[in-house]
Design goal:
alpha/beta, 49% helix, 15% strand, Rossmann fold
């Protein structure tokens, strides 16, 4: 397998160069690319460090630097080192093919197949936004998971994390003396998860929320009422046999990981039946 060093030089995070380069690299078989990232290159000194790094492991230089002086410095250094210089985004695919000596597959959509998860995440994020805080309950059956919990149990941020993993998630608030949407009880293939929290911790979170909004304390943070609210929600979860996750000592990531495992278990159960 042919080995080629690829230096990505950017005056920002390098995401543009990284995304475009990787979309093109998958078009070449039998070539192993080693990527080197030189990001936030905005001064002459930083550019010189990048040039020194390129000189130590010569290879293709892909540039997204906008400053003409810095860009010219890199281009001239590339010529002195006799290494290819490619200004993104123009003709990147054709240039890589000529340089590595291997014709590209020219397969339409190949990079999209590689990034199919990206489009899944976009779809999941749009679904989550439309189904946040009890919205659009008529299409809850399209969700992978629905989270139910009292106010401030991290339902929305957990859904955001799940959406970034490509999972369609919705959340429905549990409000005392307010019936949950009937669509929730009709779900068969969609997983419903109840979120709960230690009452004292919940009161603290709610008080911080009121302070941030410059609002006075109400029954929303009264400990006895909060305890009753959580107990009532838990009884509902248990009566419908919804799995319950206590988020008191869990980060958003840990809660989401537990939910992902529950979804996987549920899917296996459905396949078996």
């Amino acid at each position: 397998m042919k080995k080629v060093h690829l230096h990505l030089v950017s005056d920002a995070t390098g995401d543009t160069a990284r995304s475009v380069a990787r979309a093109c690299l998958v078009q070449f078989d039998d070539v192993e690319f080693t990527e080197h990232f030189w990001v936030l290159v905005r001064t002459q000194e930083q550019m010189e460090r990048a040039i020194d790094g390129i000189a130590s492991q010569p290879g293709i230089v892909v540039c997204t630097v906008l400053d003409e002086t810095l860009r010219n410095t890199l281009e001239q250094a590339s010529r002195r080192m006799n290494v290819p210089f490619i200004p993104v985004l123009d003709q990147l695919l054709g240039a890589l093919g000529a340089i590595v000596g291997t014709p590209s597959r020219r397969t339409p959509g190949r990079q999209h197949a590689m990034d199919a998860s990206y489009f899944d995440r976009i779809d999941a994020m749009q679904y989550m936004t439309a189904h946040d805080d009890g919205q659009s309950t008529w299409s809850l059956d399209q969700a992978d998971v629905v989270l139910v919990g009292v106010s401030r149990t991290s339902k929305t941020p957990t859904c955001v994390y799940l959406a970034n993993r490509g999972l369609r998630s919705a959340n429905v608030p549990y409000v005392p003396n307010v019936p949950l949407p009937r669509e929730l009880f009709a779900l068969r293939r969609t997983l419903v998860v109840g979120l709960t929290l230690d009452p004292m911790r919940l009161v603290q979170i709610r008080r911080n929320r009121l302070l941030a909004l410059n609002q006075e304390e109400t029954s929303y943070v009264e400990i006895d009422l909060v305890k009753a609210e959580i107990a009532e929600a838990r009884r509902v979860f248990l009566s419908h046999r919804w799995p319950i996750i206590d988020v008191t000592r869990r980060s958003i990531e840990e809660t989401a990981t537990a939910i992902i495992q529950l979804i996987a278990d549920r899917q296996e159960e459905i396949v078996r039946t």
